[in-house]
Amino acid sequence: MSTFLARLEEVNSPRIGLGCMNLSHGYGNPLPEGDALRALEAAFDMGYRHFDTATLYGATANERLVGKALAGKRERLLLASKGGMVIDPALGKKVIDGRPDTLRRQCEASLARLGTDHLDIYYLHRWDPQVAIEESVGALGRLVEEGKIRGIGLSEVSATTLRRACAEHPIAAVQSEYSLWTRNPEIALIDACREAAIPLVAFSPLGRGFLAGAVVDRADLTDNDMRLQMPRFSADNLPHNLTRLDALRAEAKALGVSTAQLTLAWLGTKGDDIVPIPGSRSVTHMRENLAAEALQLDAACVARLDAMMTHEQIAGDRYTEAQQSEVDTETFAGG
């Protein structure tokens, strides 16, 4: 068993974890701190033990929030953060930097914000193409040797890059977008992960809220919501994609569950080494998502879901051309 999955077992964690990003970043205005703290405390109380954050989120605000909410609980959870992609306050924009000195500095700053002396997983949030992956991973390996991180993670990398990284140092987890409407990891990454017994941590397993029915009109999104810039949520593509939800809603209704629960249960059929980290600002939705772990799907249902939102049936790529240039993941032909 991988060290990552072993840690989940050690802290008695459900396979479903909590992505903390949208409390502070990405989907409109951040929650007021008091509300966000109460949501994180409620998440722990209801059973979440895997919490995922990053230096990027809220320009470090999310790490401070998670550190404050989980103070005194550190030994009872798996704590993950990410570096190598941050909001540079001097430039006021996102910067990808995978140089060894940068990664060390960012990791140590994350530890301070989170109030801990180590992270269970520290991800390279994005591979910096100006720095060999071996160089960045080697630097993270030295942090493992020093006990500052227990395992190295990679985010949004291709199978080829993962194999290069593994030759430099063991990789504990790989994070990639994976959901009913984003099957890119099935092209090559899942196979590469399994070759090296590395779990895949599936971020945005609810399609950035789309598969939970949370986005039905662009007008409902605030001006600073990142989804407004994503092709699948464009004025041209969103109406078509909404029609693809009809079959999912019908399937969920027949089972007496929500579309979010059905989507997470579908991911659960893809292997014990797939670890979803849905995010939510709602305590009710956090509880609903966690309950999906107990939902069992029969083979016929899984087959219907497999065929429901293939790449050919969804309008728009998951990223713009500029966003895609920042990641190393495989894409389907034509996008």
What's a quick, concise take on this entry?
With 335 residues, the protein is of the alpha/beta class. It is built from 13 helices and ten strands.
* Silhouette: globular
What count of helical segments does DSSP give?
13
Rg, Å, rounded: 19 Å
Across the major sheet, the strand order is 1-2-3-6-7-8-9-10
Question: By helix and strand content, what is the structural category?
Answer: alpha/beta
Average pLDDT reading: 96
CATH topology: TIM Barrel
CATH level 1 class label: Alpha Beta
Strand content: 5-15%
Q: Give the CATH architecture.
A: Alpha-Beta Barrel
Helix content: 25-40%
Oligomer: single chain
Low-confidence residue ranges: none
- The count of domains is 1
Largest sheet: 8 strands, parallel
CATH superfamily annotation: NADP-dependent oxidoreductase domain
Order of H and E elements: HEHEHEEEHEHEHEHEHHHEHHH
Task: Give structural notes.
With 335 residues, the protein is of the alpha/beta class. It has one domain: TIM Barrel (Alpha-Beta Barrel), CATH 3.20.20.100. The protein is built from 13 helices and ten strands. An eight-stranded parallel sheet has the order 1-2-3-6-7-8-9-10. α2 packs across α3, α5 packs across α6 and α6 (159-168) packs parallel to α7. GO terms for molecular function: oxidoreductase activity. It holds the Pfam family Aldo_ket_red.
Keywords:
335 residues; alpha/beta; TIM Barrel; two-stranded antiparallel sheet; 13 helices; 10 strands; 12% strand; globular
